[in-house]
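User: What would this chain look like folded?
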Amino acid sequence: MMLHWIKDPSAQFALIGALLFAINSAFQGDQAADTEDIIVSEARIQHLAGIFERGWQRPPEPAELQGLIDDFVREEVLYREAVKMGLDRDDTVIRRRLRMKMELLARDLVNAIEPAEQVLRDYHQRHIQKYTQPAQYSFEQIFLNSDQRPQVAEDARMVLTKLTAGGNPRKLGDNSLLQFEMESASVERIDRQFGADFSQQLLELPDNEWSGPLTSAYGEHLVKISARQPRRETEFSEVRAEVLRDWQQQEQNKILQTQYETLRDNYRIQISAASTTAISSEASR
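Assistant: Here's the prediction, encoded as structure tokens.
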């Protein structure tokens, strides 16, 4: 069951910390005070069975469950011996994997908390620009290569005349890799394809008639707009799932930073000034 979100930030962190401690204690319960004892708790067995069931869509048979337990014990024995031998030290892959597991634990706990609806609505309003739908256009375009047409403006007028007389627009322009027709294209997509600010030239064009020429990064264009959708702010209900994901990511980042700062206070960090100075000097050359 999802937990209702607590608005007090200190209460948030206290809740996350308590959950982290509880999970850690549950798994540490497999180990007795004597580090040579391996005790497979009921919680561990249920965890192993749950993993099997998610993968195979059925609970394990008794022999399969015993195999899972045996495999866990084997892994635990070899893991502890590897740690005693120091095989986990100075191994970049292991270090990064353990860091990832620490961070994923905090993220999973944040995802288990369901925020109040008003919290998400407030987040949506604070970041409304992110959830604003850009203007979109559907249009056709005829490309006129200005490098090959010294009188491109005059040529554009001639093409417009032919279009008015019913000419086929697909046969009146120059060859180009640009799309002849774009459907519900955002201004960002249009500018990526035709060059910066090309979409601004569409603002004043009439609908459903050929106009131009318009200048792009490639040459001149005659354009016929068939539909347009103005820029608009989305309703919360349209983007609630996206807002929830973004809110969770924000809270995860807060928790991870707090977690790191809290744990870091347990250590005395010493960084060689001589080494950093030498690296800085080398980089400046």
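Residues 240-264 form the longest helix (25 residues). If you want, I can go into more detail on any region.
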